[in-house]
Amino acid sequence: MARKKREKELQPNIKVRLDRRTVITVRDRSKLEFWKEKYPGLEILEESYDKVEEVKEQPKPKTAKAAAKAKKPASKPASKTASKTKKA
C-alpha cells in the first residue's frame, strides 16, 4: 500500500564569515548565537532557505545500441528477384 509523502520543512541556510579565511553555513539561529560568542566579529554573508524540489524523471540519453537501431531503415529494400517480376 502506498504511503503519503511527508512535507519537508524549509530550513534556513545562513552563511557566516568567522574570520577573514573561514566561512561556514549554519542551519539554526541558536547555533548562530553559539558562534557569535566564540567570534564576536562574525559577519552574516547570506541568509536563504532550502527549496524542496521534487525529483523529476528526465529522459535518459540514448545508448549506442539504441542509436544504431534507429539508424537502420525501417523496411528492407525489395530483393532483385521481386524487382524483375515487377518489370515483366
Q: What would a concise description of this structure say?
A:
This protein has 88 residues and is of the alpha+beta class.
Structure notes:
The chain has three helices and three strands. With 88 residues, the chain is of the alpha+beta class. A hairpin with a 5-residue loop joins strand 1 and strand 2 (23-26). 1% of the residues are buried.
Provide the descriptors you would attach to this structure in a database record:
88 residues, single chain, elongated, 3-stranded antiparallel sheet, 3 helices, alpha+beta
Output the structural class.
alpha+beta
Number of helices: 3
- Secondary-structure element series: EEHEHH
Taking the sheet with the most strands, its summary is: 3 strands, antiparallel
Q: How much strand? A: 15-25%
Number of strands: 3
Head-to-tail CA distance between termini: 68 Å
State mean pLDDT (0 to 100 scale).
75
C-alpha geometry: elongated
Cα radius of gyration in angstroms: 32 Å
